[in-house]
């Protein structure tokens, strides 16, 4: 199994690259591009669908020669809601940065047939999940109920400093609907202020996989299986973008029994 923590390259261009081959799994692809004004990213997936999330900054989008305008508006992931765009297989896309731009390229297997869709901030809702020191703020960019993708599930979460997230510990690594769905997952982490760090643990019941990581601004954590809670330390808010995909576009998770009492506390 490859190392679960993927560090961003200290440059511009493609700074993170997670593919099914590099991750040794089947479904999720997750790249991060960091572009200066005037620079471009481009791509094409023959058998995969793509969701581009405008994490921060603005960029002009072209798909198969058609101009979709300038997308993006926030300067930080800690400011408001994102812009995104869904792109079906076989479409050639490019994004040209209008200013300093960070985009996340999320991909998963697809047969085609879904239309291109611009996802605007006004289309999205921020909901509060949890309470007390387990509070976090969730923005579903491509949830299972929206019907706009074949495989991809995309969501961003902000966890206030001193709080836990993706907790109580849960997993989704068995194709056992309706009790649990099999979904690979990536976490793209950002910190505010950016010099901070947070913690994430990925572990299975038998502890054959048990890895605890200090994550820094721009890191990606791969979750091939098992439980995967996060903790934001005092003074530093934690943002993460989740990309999930599996054999079915359903998010059903299984709570670790020893921690499930926390849901009733």
List keywords for this structure.
265 residues, mainly beta, 6-stranded antiparallel beta sheet
Can you summarize this structure?
The protein is 2% helix and 50% strand. By secondary structure, the protein is mainly β.
Fold topology:
Blueprint: E1 5-6, E2 13-18, H1 20-23, E3 29-35, E4 40-44, E5 48-56, E6 59-63, E7 66-71, E8 83-87, E9 92-97, E10 101-109, E11 117-119, E12 126-129, E13 136-142, E14 153-159, E15 164-165, E16 170-171, E17 173-176, E18 180-182, E19 184-192, E20 197-203, E21 210-216, E22 220-223, E23 230-232, E24 237-245, E25 254-255
Antiparallel strand pairs: 1-22, 2-3, 3-10, 4-9, 5-8, 5-10, 6-7, 6-9, 8-11, 12-13, 13-14, 14-24, 15-23, 16-25, 17-18, 19-22, 19-24, 20-21, 20-23
Task: Describe the protein.
By secondary structure, the chain is mostly beta strands. The protein is built from one helix and 25 strands. A hairpin with a 2-residue loop joins strand 6 and strand 7 (66-71). It is globular and about 55 Å long.
């Amino acid at each position: 199994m490859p190392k679960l923590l993927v560090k961003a390259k200290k440059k511009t261009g493609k700074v993170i690259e997670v593919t099914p081959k590099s991750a040794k799994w089947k479904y999720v692809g997750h790249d991060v591009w960091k572009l200066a004004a005037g620079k471009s990213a481009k791509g094409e997936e023959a058998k995969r669908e793509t969701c581009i999330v405008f994490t921060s900054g603005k960029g002009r989008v072209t798909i198969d020669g058609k101009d979709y305008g300038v997308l993006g508006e926030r300067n930080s992931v800690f400011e408001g809601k994102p812009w995104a765009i869904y792109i079906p297989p076989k479409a050639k896309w490019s994004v040209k940065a209008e200013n300093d731009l960070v985009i996340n390229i999320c991909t998963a297997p697809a047969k085609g047939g879904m239309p291109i869709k611009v996802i605007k901030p006004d289309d999205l809702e921020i909901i509060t999940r949890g309470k007390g020191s387990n509070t976090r703020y969730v923005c579903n960019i491509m949830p299972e109920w929206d019907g706009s993708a074949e495989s991809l599930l995309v969501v961003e979460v902000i966890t206030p400093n001193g709080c836990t997230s993706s907790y109580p510990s849960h997993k989704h690594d068995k194709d056992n609907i309706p009790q649990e769905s099999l979904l690979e997952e990536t976490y793209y982490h950002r910190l505010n202020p950016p010099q901070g760090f947070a913690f994430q643990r990925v572990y299975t019941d038998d502890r054959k996989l048990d890895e605890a990581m200090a994550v820094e601004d721009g890191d990606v954590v791969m979750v091939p299986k098992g439980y995967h809670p996060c903790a934001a330390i005092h003074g530093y808010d934690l943002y993460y973008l989740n990309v999930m995909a599996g054999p079915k576009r359903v998010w059903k998770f299984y709570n670790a029994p020893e921690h499930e009492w926390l849901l009733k506390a």
